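Supplementary notes for students who missed Thursday's class. We covered one full example, reproduced here. Read the sequence, then the structure, then the short commentary at the end.
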Amino acid sequence: MGRERFEELVGDALDQVPRDLVELVENVVVLVEDEPPVDDADLLGLYDGTPLTERDTMYAGVLPDRITLYRGPILRMCESDADVVDEVRITVVHEIAHYFGIDDDRLHELGYG
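Structure (token representation):
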């Protein structure tokens, strides 16, 4: 699957996030990279920022938080285009949840691990 199509799937996944939640997300950019910066074949996505649960009154004037999806690992783990669609959706939700301060253990319980 080409990069352009993959980026469309990321956009589609973002469009499926409930509007009430999306409206709470501020100062976040969503990126697609081909490979993770570390040698971790299992890393499908990464939230880089300060979760809402850790912000205080001093949190201001910062660069946007980043959600990055890694195209290569997602494509390698999926057997079909339908699998890619599902995994992109799951990964987008997983990383947005980190923005809200939800940890990996809870995400696994919810089926977004």
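Commentary. The chain has five helices and three strands. Helices lie at 3-16, 19-22, 71-77, 81-99, 104-109. If anything here is unclear, bring it to office hours.
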